[in-house]
Design goal:
Strand content: 15-25%
Distance between the termini: 58 Å
Strand order of the largest sheet: 1-2-3-4-5-6-7-8-9-10
Number of helices: 13
Shape: globular
CATH topology of the largest domain: TIM Barrel
Order of helices and strands: HHHHHHEEEHEHEHHEHEHEHEEEEE
Largest sheet: 10 strands, mixed
Helix content: 25-40%
Structural class: alpha/beta
CATH class of the largest domain: Alpha Beta
Length: about 375
């Protein structure tokens, strides 16, 4: 699906520059998610209008954007301190010449998603669940995205024919009990189209739960309106996984968006990505997780940033992630501590990592380290 058909489907329209910067929610127009999409910044001229760019940026960024496009909603733009080149929101959405620097260890598809793709739009890696990519479009294109490889291929939405083949595959594979809707961001599609997808999945008896991966509560909270939430509520059990990376992203608008989902009886989990110079600090991560729990969003995963082409400047060491978890575990509520995981290469799945609390083990006794660093013996009973 391309061109005019695609624009009609997503109702994004063309790229129109916002003429003034107002706080989000200050006008009826800006409260409309379609207005937000129409007025997103998508080109170098929009960046020059909103940011004080260096000459070298003006020269190099068009080459970056050609391969790794970008889009920033007016709402998400309003969260940026534009006088600070290292603002944590800016670093997540404004393109950088560092994205096309050579990093030999990086790959377009290091997780092997294409290897596990059984049909266009359907990844079947784990026995009891599948991932369905409805589109490769997003309100904001995160510079650390694990599917950056899709951006330079043009933007698309799954056709009805593609979806029917996917439903047929799921029907004939009765071990599948969990379907994850992803993209891109599935909530960029119209409520009517999403309703049709969810209804078709709900007609398959062995599909028990549906998960939706979306960053809309963070970058486009206006999308979480009464019409969308009312539609989602019809198809429960549904789980929403969203993607806050920094405390600055938790605003009254994003809180209200999450609250609408929660009040519809839909749990909300958060999947943070560990990002250099953005959240690779125990105090920042603790502040983020405390803020998430305050708005009833569960800190679920802390992902190590995948070795994706175009993300090398945002990747930290694994030791940094372990250091952060160690600084949190025991020093704040366990509810606030996400599970730190590395997504295994070539389809190996998520590998949870913890600091070294197990020192040694014998038949009758384990030697453990507590959260304060003190070592103690723990009797190990027989099975």
């Amino acid at each position: 699906m391309k061109g005019d058909e695609l624009r009609m489907e997503t109702e994004t329209g063309s790229s129109i520059q916002a003429t003034e910067d107002k706080p989000p929610g200050c006008s009826e127009a800006q409260d409309d998610w379609k207005w937000q999409l129409r007025n997103s910044i998508k080109d170098i001229e929009g960046l020059k209008e909103k940011f004080l760019l260096k000459e070298e940026d003006i020269d190099t960024l068009p080459g970056v954007i050609k391969y790794f496009p970008f889009s920033i909603t007016p709402y998400y733009l309003s969260l940026i301190d534009r006088g600070n080149a290292n603002d944590p929101v800016r670093l997540q959405c404004v393109p950088s010449e560092k994205e096309i620097a050579l990093h030999l260890e990086l790959q377009d598809d290091p997780l092997g998603e294409e290897k596990d793709t059984v049909l266009p739009g359907l990844v079947h890696r784990y026995p009891d669940r599948v991932l369905l990519t409805l589109t490769n479009m997003c309100p904001v294109y995160c510079r650390h995205c694990t599917r950056k490889r899709e951006w330079h291929k043009g933007f698309w939405v799954r056709t009805s024919e593609e979806l029917e083949k996917i439903y047929s595959y799921i029907r004939t594979h009765k071990d599948i009990r969990d379907v994850i809707l992803s993209g891109g961001d599935p909530l960029i599609l119209s409520t009517q189209k999403l309703d049709g997808v969810l209804e078709s999945l709900r007609e398959i008896d062995h599909v028990e739960i549906i998960r939706i991966g979306t960053r809309c509560p963070v970058v486009l909270p206006q999308r979480i309106d009464d019409e969308l939430v009312g539609m989602l509520k019809k198809h429960r059990p549904i789980w929403v996984n969203t993607h806050f990376n920094h405390p600055n992203e938790i605003t009254k608008e994003s809180q209200a968006a999450c609250d609408r989902i929660l009040c519809a009886g839909i749990p909300v989990n958060n999947q943070t990505v560990l990002l250099k110079n953005i959240n690779d600090d125990a105090q920042i991560m603790t502040r983020l997780c405390h803020a998430l729990v305050r708005i009833s969003v569960r800190p679920y995963y802390l992902f190590h940033c995948d070795p994706i082409s175009g993300t090398g400047h945002l990747r930290t060491s694994i030791d940094k992630g372990l250091e952060i978890i160690k600084a949190m575990r025991g020093f704040t509520s366990g509810l606030c501590v996400p599970t730190y995981v590395v997504d295994g290469l070539e389809g190996q799945g998520k590998v949870p990592l913890q600091p070294e609390y197990l020192i040694s083990k014998g038949k009758d006794c384990f030697v453990l380290r507590g959260y304060k660093g003190e070592i103690f013996n723990y009797y190990n009973p027989e099975d």
